[in-house]
Amino acid sequence: MFGVEDFRGKGKLTSLTPESMENIYRLTKRIIFSRRLKAPITVFGAFTYKCNLRCAHCYQKAGPPLQGEMTTEEALSVIEDLAQSGGSNLSISGGEIFLRDDAFHLIEYASSLKLRTLVVSNGYLVTEDTTRTLRKCGLDYMAISIDSMNPEAHDTFRGRPGSLERAVRAVHCTTEVGMVSSVRTTVMKFNYETVPEVFKWCIENNVDELVLFQGVNVGRATGIADQLIPFDSFINLGYILKEYEEKIRNLRVYIPRAGIPYIICSLPHGFTNESYMPFSLSGLILTNSCMAGYNVLLRPNGTIAPCSYFPHPVENLKEKSIRDAFQNPLLVAMRERSFKGACGTCPDKLECGGCRSKAYMHFGDPLHSDPDCPKVRGTEEWKAFCSLTTKMEESEL
After folding, report:
1. What is the CA radius of gyration of the chain?
2. String of b and e for 257-283 (b: at least 16 CB within 10 Å)?
3. I need a labelling partner for 352 at 20 to 30 A (CA). Which of 45, 150, 162, 235 fits?
């Protein structure tokens, strides 16, 4: 049976144009959506909730560690299980991953098992020594969060003075040692107008990828609902950046379908970076689709959830193997696209999937329709739910 391990350890691919990359993306999607997977394509591993920042939007409400966080032995066991099950990609993050004493051990072990490994960090603790050690551990790919090139704006949002300066240093340290460099930006009202400045900075500083995330009303973000932007505004920002494709060679901006809350910008340097392409082909950067159920979120205590924006545990890897946990009914339903409402009858549901987190937040059911999809927004089912919600709120007053 087909498994994503077929994409693992195939070496580097060079001399690919953006057009040929897009053709390969389409082929990869067709294979992945064949529904024959036996393990997650990517495990987004939050190995600790301990964090040295207090980001206003954090879906985890990170700060103190989660009760029952995995020991080193338990974490290594999960990583080994992923590799043996045919998984291809592992994202290692927190909280802040470098607050775990065994961070380098986990990263080195994952790399030794030929898992394509990504580390996501806020950058505060990342120095030249850090990135040199990471390279020795076999790491190829690192993502750092930058929300604004304005220190006051970034630092206030991230909850600690000096955060932007440390994040910029971390990006430079990453590129200098030859790792794939990715910058992650959460788009809110306070930084909406200045995201193009981050985009420009990334291109000028040889960053391979910029990923924009729409702030979603989950976790700590529920306390700053007035800062959340409508999905239409988020997508409009993507189209503003996409106009630069005509001016900047080898730039590709991928606009998602439905209400999927991320926009991926493959930057010019990425198409000359031999290490960046295999990540693209393996599905780690598979774009325009909701991958909840195909990917899973691993929480620090060993439980897994469909995605970061829907962090509700469905299984526990301390009790089950990844292959067995992957057959959880909700995860299967998400892969099978067993949806309700407009998403259930949509001809694009296989390759789109809608945002399962938004479906849950709006309709109370992760298998319902994506309320930010143009095909759903304004329909009778959407209006009926909004009317019911309004009546319930009025009755509580």
Report:
1. 20
2. bbbbbbbbbbbbbbbebeebbbbbbbb
3. 45
